[in-house]
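User: I've been going back and forth on whether these two constructs are worth ordering. Before I decide, could you fold them both?

Assistant: Sure. I'll take them in the order you sent them. The first construct and its structure tokens:
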Amino acid sequence: IPLPASLPPSFKGKAGTRPVLDGGTLVGKPDGIDLEGFCTGYNFIFAGLDLRNFTHSVSMIQWAGMCRFLDLDAGGARGGFYLHDASNVFVGQSRFHDDTNFGVALKGYSNTIEFQDCVVENNGTLDGGGFEAEFTVDNVRLSRCVARNNAGEGFDLKVDGLQLDGCLAIHNTAGYALWRNGLLQNCEAFDNLRQGIALNRMPDDYPTQVVVNCTVAGAHGDAGIDVKAGVAAWIVNTISVGSLSPALRFAAGTPPPQGR
């Protein structure tokens, strides 16, 4: 039954309460919040929920869309927040932690996704980690998000036209890994195992990647900022100090760097 746009359905606790959804004793260990294509257009709001011990704490697949998630605390799952072919999703003030594989994974043809003031920590294998996205995903923005203590990269995002603003990566294998055209501004990377910022590229792709007003500090085992061959890098008003290897490294075959 279509619902009026002025009354989007909300899932949250009563005033003064915080519901806890725990899948630990459920047969088959399902997803906590499981949304498929039917939910498109309803503008669902999920707010103030704790989710524990599911396969995915949140799953949106098969063209699900137009949902908002606010103030979630989700942990102990195989994966935290999982999108596959989903669109028009907003996530704010939420935490995804202590998951086996990843905190946030964006896959398939997911698009138009925004995260604000979110934390991913203590997640994953080396193949997973904090925020990750496939190269088929489009139109992603992260603002004031934190990736901390993840086994893989903090932000490993193969998205074209990516925007990260005011984010922090600390104590991950690598802080930020950009692969296509993207903007990294007002961001910080501290004490990650390898690079603070890795500017990579996909095969047969020659992206332009812009780093503005960023700080890289701490004993990164590899370069503080590592620019791979074939990447056109603009690095402006950015500090890189304290790494065990070069503060800034350009691979052979890299276009002349721009900026200062």
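The second construct, handled the same way:
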Amino acid sequence: SLGENAKDQIFYLYAAYFLVSAVTFVLVFIFMRAKPREAPSLGAEVKKSTIRETIQMLKNDRNLWKFVSAYVLVYGTVIALGSEANLLFKPYGFTDIQIGICAITMLVMGVAGSILFSIYLKKTGNYRKALRIIVILSFAIIVALEVWLSVSAALGVTIIIVGLVGFCCTPIIMLCYDLGCELAFPMGEAQVTGILNGSSLFFTFLTTLIISSAIGFGKKSDTTIVMFTFMAFILAGCILFFKVKIVLKRKNLESGKLDS
């Protein structure tokens, strides 16, 4: 029967997940070192702050708070948009397969955008300019998506715009992880990325929960209200990003501009 076939397919899917995960874990456990034999840079040799010192740093560093809040507002909103895309696009007549194509396009273009912005950042080293370009493009493309859904919502152009959402918004991850480690130095890299990632996911959870309860989904008007809410969050994040003071503490230490 159809139900039995579905159960078998789900079983094989999770069995494949388990097999890949188990093999990956074993390979990492055997071959991956905890750290290189020699420190790759001067900054890597500096003793990282403890949990207590990290909490104290977060309490006192307003610039870091601005940075974390801006990241949460921008990227947390993008995650919320991606997680609710099915409900947001359904009122415009998109099928599950069409929404899936949009999602895949967004992922692929996100990887491409991250690679290109990484190359740009490596060549220029200008974090401020790269950050401002990314957040402005992120806000502009989210506005363009809402405008297009309201005007036409034709599939071809929608796929292109959603792909540009991935291209413009995804690079903020790699940029903010790297910049966050600079701003929060000597806080450990794992602590910085954990704070950014955990905070944005918690914001996404709260946002989707509140929107689902207060606004709901199912009508074009609901999608419009949700999209304007997302635009407001991203705009607030852009403003905060523009107010963040870019201080490359780790790079300054390595160039001799900070005391160790």
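Notes on the second construct follow. The mean pLDDT is 84. The longest helix spans residues 2-31.
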